[in-house]
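User: Fold both of these, please.

Assistant: Here is the first one.
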Amino acid sequence: MNKKFLFSALAGVLAVGMLTACGGAGDEPVEDPGEEDMEMEEEQDMQEEKDFDQEMEEDPAEEE
């Protein structure tokens, strides 16, 4: 009797766990947070290149 009840309870827990883990997707699609990071990095890189180019135009290196 005890084993039968224990197995039934464990089967119920397993079934609820499977339904929860394999449930339907949410209403909103999940956005990749890596996309935003890449865009920000590209903008920073472009700004750094512009700053570097401006510095090179303003202060050319003197040859020794």
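And the second sequence with its predicted structure:
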Amino acid sequence: MTYTNKPVRNASWVVIGTLAGHFRRQAGYTQASLAELLHTDPETIASREQGRRLLQPRMAATLDELFGTGGVLSVAWRRSRSASGTRRSRSTSSPTNGKR
């Protein structure tokens, strides 16, 4: 079996990144021009579009407004969070104090 140091990509991140890249191209931006407008690095844009980095909610809203998507990226982000079970919740289990 071969092991690599590459992290496993979250499928939701890849889908959201693909959507962001599609909308970016439709709006006429390159990764470099979008990065300049957003005061970030083009590699950051590429990483988000490839699913290596998660598009954060504030950035999703900014891109929705910039690309005129009607909130598609923000909705996709919220749905991916609820589908993956990554929302914070309180645990109902009691601590065991080291006893089993």
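Residues 87-100 have pLDDT under 50 and may be disordered.
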